[in-house]
Design a protein that fits this description.
The complex is a heterodimer. Helices cover 76% and strands 0% of the residues of chain A. Chain A is globular and about 85 Å long. The N and C termini of chain A lie far apart (48 Å). The mean pLDDT of chain A is 86. Chain B is α/β, with parallel strands linked by helices. Chain B has two domains: 176 residues, Rossmann fold (3-Layer(aba) Sandwich), CATH 3.40.50; 67 residues, no CATH class. In chain B, the strands form three sheets. A six-stranded mixed β-sheet of chain B has the order 6-7-8-3-9-10, with helices on both faces. Chain B has a four-stranded antiparallel β-sheet with strand order 2-1-4-5, covered by helices on one side. The longest helix of chain B has 18 residues. Chain B starts with 9 loop residues before the first strand and ends with a helix. The chains are: A mainly alpha, B alpha/beta.
Chain lengths: 360, 279
């Protein structure tokens, strides 16, 4: 009797041990997310104090405090509340949107190279914007002309991918390759359009493709924020299905997941998120590719944690990049797209060099 | 031929499947009851894996019916099937990092919507214990050996608490000790929990030792079915595989020793004769 009790006890302690370890493992993931959140707040705080218009740190915070209760009165208040603060918000929203969309796309396409920019979305957006800038034609009017056009055209590649999956099975390869084909087609169309227009329009259209937060304003933040939050909720809800799908289609099907439908659903959500960002900012590269990878190295591939972590980390990356872009050559403000690409490239090379396994 | 009876957990009746116009399965009939291990043997391309995929509704047969319990598979949603049937594909590639614990936890997916509960965690711990892989719980699955990975995916299927287990060549990447261990575990789980297992397998001796029934397939059709002793005979193996074998019966379990492939055997003796002639 006593010996069987002992073995039972041993089993129980073993279980407790694993449970404890698993809890600690989950705790580490939560800790990483909290750290990233803290970093995001810290960088936002620092970023608000930096800029070519010199205001002391103390003054900046008192202006922010006062601005919560009244509309901006003088130049300093105007600069803080209508330029720096919206820019910070837009940076966070854009970084978070691109990174979560990237994490989701890499997950469902089972491809570490998938990102919002590799499946044609940016090509479509650039063409839509160029059409509005050069021909003045589009689906919306006023200040939303370029944005509306970019938004609608950026969704075309996704619709083409979905249409194609009616004839071919919705495998990751088909979807990725179709996206790349769309990227080429739209890039050719944009070039054609530029070839026949005058140089000022070409310059503007080109500058649009180099993403920047300079156009950030309160009018743009709200729609962008709404689109992204509305898509993020179902995305998080589907995170377990995404986990199951990372082990392959057959396994996922045998675990009850409707693989094809889930893949298309998540593709649509992440396309909408990307469109909701880049139609306001222009093409910002690398955040959507690099942020999920760095988070995966830190906390593993569980999408329940990976997606929120990537979002926060993407915000940190983009905000840091934009703060650098504003200050590094002050008073010249560089487009953030240049900084993310030039920062992201070497960073990515470093990550590839130090990876341990086939993946990491 | 195997007769279908009322107690069967799973019945496959006159199933036909073809890729494009290439027929892969024809007139396939089988049934498996509780506490039974059914092995499917046959040469490469005989349709073993395709049959398993049809049974799990990953592929849709053009003709025939598959009954899971009393219900036609066609009427069941994927999630309902997943609650009753676990499938372990031949090759599973987990591309992004995941701990063994999390991979096994995925097996609980059919039973809940999006959040894992205490019972699910307990279930995972229990399964890890059954397969004796508790020490791997927090390791990354990509760091494990082929045999260990196989065990993890088996654990995931067990966490699913299925009534029918489908295993596609569970022993193909394993050394002999692990092969025996995996087959032992399958047999034990099947007997203890009163579930059924359908295994596609290349090793005829393992099939003979561990199965209650064996089905031998050739070109998408069932060539022979029944107890291992009656199916794994010298004549059957010769006509299905084209291989000359010696079958020894060791305490009612056939033991198969391959001797020579038939076609190549003739070739070899012809070469010998030619060699003699030239001397």
């Amino acid at each position: 009797m006593s010996s069987s009790n002992e073995t039972l006890g041993a089993i129980r302690t073993k279980r407790q041990e694993i449970k404890k370890e698993y809890k600690e493992f989950t705790g580490r993931k939560v800790f990483f997310i909290l750290c990233t959140l803290f970093a995001l707040l810290l960088i936002s705080g620092i970023s608000a104090t930096l800029g070519s218009y010199s205001i002391t740190v103390r003054e900046v915070y008192s202006i922010i405090w006062r601005g919560l209760f009244q509309i901006p009165q003088d130049t300093a208040e105007f600069i803080i509340w209508n330029l720096r603060v919206p820019r910070i918000f837009m940076g966070i929203i854009a970084g978070a949107g691109l990174a979560t969309a990237g994490a989701a796309m890499q997950g469902i396409l089972r491809n570490p190279l998938a990102s919002p920019l590799t499946i044609g979305i940016s090509g479509g957006a650039a063409f839509g914007a160029a059409l509005a800038i050069i021909l003045g034609a589009g689906f919306a009017t006023g200040k939303y002309l370029i944005i509306g056009n970019a938004f609608i055209f950026s969704l075309i590649p996704t619709f083409v991918i979905i249409a194609l999956t009616r004839y071919r099975r919705a495998t990751p390869e088909t979807m990725l390759l179709t996206g790349i084909a769309m990227q080429y087609i739209f890039s050719a169309l944009t070039t054609l359009l530029m070839y026949f227009s005058d140089s000022d329009a070409v310059k503007e259209a080109y500058f649009w493709t180099v993403g920047s937060l300079a156009r950030a304003s309160w009018d743009f933040i709200l729609p962008s924020f709404i689109i992204i939050t509305a898509c993020l909720i179902p995305l998080l809800w589907k995170s377990w299905d995404m986990n199951v799908m990372s082990a392959g289609d057959e396994s996922a099907k045998s675990l009850g997941v409707n693989v094809e439908r889930t893949r298309i659903f998540i593709l649509v959500l992440s396309s909408l998120i990307t469109a909701g960002v880049i139609s306001f900012t222009g093409t910002i590269g690398f955040v959507g590719l690099v942020a999920p990878h760095i988070c995966r190295m830190a906390i593993g591939g569980d999408n329940k944690f990976l997606i929120p972590a990537s979002g926060l980390f993407g915000g940190v990356l983009l905000l840091t990049a934009d703060t650098l872009a504003r200050t590094i050559m002050a008073p010249v403000v560089l487009p953030v797209g240049i900084v993310t690409a030039s920062m992201g490239g070497p960073l990515f090379l470093y990550l590839i060099m130090r990876r341990r396994r086939e993946y990491w | 031929m195997v007769r279908c009876n009322g107690l069967a957990k799973l019945k496959v009746k006159d199933v036909e499947f073809s890729y494009a116009s290439d027929p892969v399965l024809k007139d396939v009939c089988l049934h498996v009851s509780a506490s039974e291990v059914l092995s499917i043997v046959g040469p490469n391309g005989a349709g073993k894996s395709t049959l398993l995929r049809c049974i799990d509704k990953i592929l849709f047969p053009q003709k025939g019916t598959i009954l899971l319990g009393e219900t036609d598979l066609k009427m069941m949603k994927r999630m309902e099937i997943a609650k009753k049937m676990g499938y372990i594909p031949q090759r599973v590639s987990q591309i992004f990092p995941a701990t063994v614990f999390d991979v096994v936890l995925m097996g609980r997916r059919p039973h809940l919507s999006w959040k894992s509960s205490k019972q699910d965690i307990e279930k995972v711990l229990e399964v890890l214990e059954i397969l004796n892989i508790e020490d791997l719980a927090l390791r990354d699955i990509n760091e494990l050996s082929g045999g260990q990975q196989q065990n993890v995916f088996f654990a995931r299927a067990l966490a699913q608490e299925p009534e029918v287990l489908l295993l596609d060549e569970p022993t193909s990447n394993l050394d002999i000790k692990h092969q025996l261990e995996v087959m032992d575990t399958i047999k034990n789980v099947v007997k203890e929990k009163g579930i059924s297992a359908i295994i596609s397998i290349h090793d005829l001796n393992l099939a003979a030792r561990y199965s209650d029934k064996v089905i031998m397939m050739k070109n998408g059709r069932i060539f022979a079915a029944g107890a291992p002793l009656s199916v794994l005979t010298r004549e059957n193996i010769k006509s299905v595989y084209g291989v000359e074998v010696i079958v020894m019966n060791e305490s009612d379990i056939p033991c198969i020793i391959p001797v020579a492939p038939i076609g190549n055997g003739k070739e070899a003796s012809r070469i010998k004769q030619l060699a003699k002639a030239s001397i």
